[in-house]
Specification:
single chain; 324 residues; alpha+beta; Gyrase A, domain 2; BirA Bifunctional Protein, domain 2; 2 domains; five-stranded mixed β-sheet; five-stranded antiparallel β-sheet; 12 strands; 18% strand
Length: 324
Amino acid sequence: PLPLPRMSYDEALRRFGTDKPDLRISYEIHDITDIVPGCGFKVFEGAIESGGVVRVLPMPSADKFSRKKIDQLTKLAQNWGAKGLADNKFDGEKFDGGIAKFLGEDFRRALAERLGEQLTPNTILFFGADKPDTVAKVLGGLRTMLAKELGIVDTSQHHALWIVNFPLFEENEDSPTGISPAHHPFTSPVEEDIPLLDENPLAVRANAYDLVLDGYEIAGGSIRIHDPALQKKIFELIGISPQEAEEKFGFLLESFRYGVPPHGGIAFGFDRLVMILAGAESIRDVIAYPKTTSGQSLMDGAPSEIDPKQLEELHIKIVDDKDR
């Protein structure tokens, strides 16, 4: 139904662990950071003291998760950046196994209340206690993977939504200012966040948007900056000097002086959309001329040898590694 629902980037990461949530999966991640103090489990309390969060992912069919299976999931979580993966099971009356013995009674009651209808008999809980990005990556990855394994993805209908309010900047230790554009330097910030450019640029939201269908991004775009002063400010924040900005983007800044209107756009990935509608597992299955991981197109034999005359016309010279 239209209009399509909208969800902020932060909410998507908090509830689904990804900015491309698959809403065909009814189970979601729950933030329990606020009920952890005094829970009795030092790992959780230590994570919060270090500025982290604690979240939990419930999944059905707990009886299908053997100790061996849980150990495999723990190793997977570690590969994704976590220190480990805590778990316990709920049989309909009590929490048991895993870390259950470390959890106080008050915390158990608060946890059951927080999970609500998603806590049913034969439920297994997976906990993440770490930096928000790490917890999102681990629990979000498990949510998608386990839902497919357990066959609980509702394939009877498609679910589309807009993801909005992405961060404008991200931390980047290689940048001279410590931050870089999360998308590109021409994306406009959300108007009400412009004052934060001086105070806390990492808190500024981008006027950008993605269209997500069944866990895949099928379109993305943004509103562009049309104010020269704002554009120069963005360049300054990411370490582009006025001289460099003029050399690289002088034509753009000059055009702003002549009344460039607010403008934006969106780009659709129709091949991804076709993949979803066709029920294919990979985008390669619906591309006319798919390439290998080495960049070869087996259908038409590309890339082929280039005529030296063509290179000469384009003023391109190929240099072997040994000649560098």
